[in-house]
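>> received
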Amino acid sequence: MPRTPTAQRGTRATRAFGRLGAGALAMGLIGAACSTALKLVSGVLPSRQFALGVASRVWTSRSTRRIAGLVGAIAVLCGLCWLLQGGLRRHARHQIDPGRIELAAAPSWAKPELAARIKGEIEADLRAELARLAPSDAFDSDLPEQVHAALARSAWVRSVISVRRRFPVDAQSQSELVPKLEVRTPALCVATAEAWLLVDADGVRLPLSIKAGSERSQDELNALLSGLTRPIRVVEGVTSSPPAPGKKWESEEIVAALSMERVLRECEMDAVLPIARMRLVGVPTHADARGRVRYAPAGGVVLLPDAGVLPQTQLMWGRPPAHAGMMEPSVNEKLSEIKRLLKEPDTLQGKAIDLASRRQS
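>> returned
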């Protein structure tokens, strides 16, 4: 039979009382657990009187008072230093303009007159790189790193060894930055249709160049070469386009010339037979898709001795060390052949000596 409304109300009341009883039981259990936890914690933690006693004994210790005094003195000293530095940073003596940077010394690879000129050009180039940096003070910890990065972008700088801050040592001096740089050294002078360009041993083009085609261009080139403490050779026959100053000349022609230059320097060839120029014949500008450097038939490097020593003499070296082939004599064999021929200089006068096909007896 269906339940009456009175029976339904009774059932709902019974359920409600059941839920209230379960809730009360849960709250009781939680309360009991919290009470037990508080008793356990109160049993573990020291009492208030015990804690005050320990603190009193610690403070009465002489070593504790000394440590506290030392910490306080350090805090006061740091505060004073912070205030003092704030005043010094605003002082004119400690203001630094990165654009006023100067080199400590001129390049050692140039004679005094040329060195002074190159030093000025390098400083102008460095100031241009640093012009974008805002003036700051000597206490700016980020300034040396910013200057380091700006100097590294210069076409003249091979590497930035360090950038340190120098503070005044007397009433007249001023704070300044002192960079320590490795300036690029020219290794070869590359002749192109438009100009003579300098490259260093890494194949990087230097900013210094001489335009070709004018009446005085040859005299300017001679003045440049004679102004170096160590003469460099002129490379002819380069057909690849030069990069911007400070960029590496990505060409197999430059790789060939530099490898040949290293051999001539290491064996001190100029001491027995000065080589004024080298000419590239049939040297490719780039390797093929497989990475092979394919020379033209009879292509290679031609060494041209100083005209004052052996005029109109050509030494047909063949492939330079960077691209040496198995069909040619080795570098040592070619050098030995030159040494043998120099015992009879008349055999070299005005002749073209083929070192690439000559075999040792």
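>> The chain has three domains: 60-90, 96-183, 186-354.
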